[in-house]
Amino acid sequence: LSDIKGRRLMTLSLTEARRLDTYLKTAIQLDGEIPQYKLLLAMLKRDYFETNGMRVPPPNAAKLLAEIDGNKIDKNEVDRLRESVKVSRQDDYLRKLLVI
What sections of the chain are H helices per DSSP? Predict the structure, then answer.
């Protein structure tokens, strides 16, 4: 989140987007039970790669969102994502989760 610096994901540079993609995939490999990693990766895939008309490195946003559908994320975590990450239709992502 510190690399994003409150910017909209589609405005990241290609280098930043690829680095964030790599970091998130590594985090998922280390602890795939944390749905926030997959959520942020889905947001990156859709808002950066798809919106900018680029080829989306697998897995795509739809697959990631399907994997986390129904997972519970603490309300504070959702609020932190909402404040830190700017994407179009942000609530579409966050509505997929059952907030506890």
Answer: 14-30, 35-44, 61-68, 75-84, 90-94
What is the pLDDT, as a whole number, of residue 50? 86
| Residues 93 and 39 sit within 8 Å (Cβ to Cβ) | yes
- Model's pTM, two decimal places? 0.77
Beta bridge partners of 98: 72
Residue for token pair 């490999």: 29
pLDDT at 99: 44
**Among 76, 62, 64, 73, residue whose Cα is nearest residue 95:** 73
Query: What residues does 95 pair with on adjacent strands?
Result: none
**Three-class SS state of 85:** coil
Q: What is the mean pLDDT of residues 80-85?
A: 70
Q: Which residue has the higher pLDDT, 22 or 90?
A: 22
35, 73 Cβ separation under 8 angstroms = yes
Half-sphere exposure of residue 95: CA atoms within 13 angstroms, side-chain side: 4
